[in-house]
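Design request, tokens follow.
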């Protein structure tokens, strides 16, 4: 999310902004993305390898991009920015 709470989408691959930083120090509290296994009972397991069926951008009252709805065969993802934080909601269909 941007500092004005709008959502940003990049056409470039994701680059770890913390690459090379020692995050094992207990004082480190910014958090990082971590890979975790996915189990079949997780609703997101249905989208692994599935094709995107459709998408709908969401705009705020002044036309700024603040969210995106992604539709897959069995799951919809609602991605957005709330209070400057990235939010992801999962809805099984």
């Amino acid at each position: 999310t941007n500092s004005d709470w709008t959502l940003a989408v990049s056409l470039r691959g994701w680059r770890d902004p913390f690459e090379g930083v020692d995050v094992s120090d207990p004082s480190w509290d910014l958090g990082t993305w971590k890979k975790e296994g996915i189990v079949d009972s997780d609703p997101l397991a249905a989208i692994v390898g599935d094709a995107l069926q459709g998408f709908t951008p969401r705009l705020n009252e002044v036309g700024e991009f603040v969210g995106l709805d992604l539709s897959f065969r069995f799951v919809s993802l609602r991605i957005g920015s709330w209070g400057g934080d990235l939010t992801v909601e999962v809805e099984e269909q």
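Comment from the thread starter after seeing the answer: thanks! Residues 80 and 86 are 6 Å apart (CA to CA).
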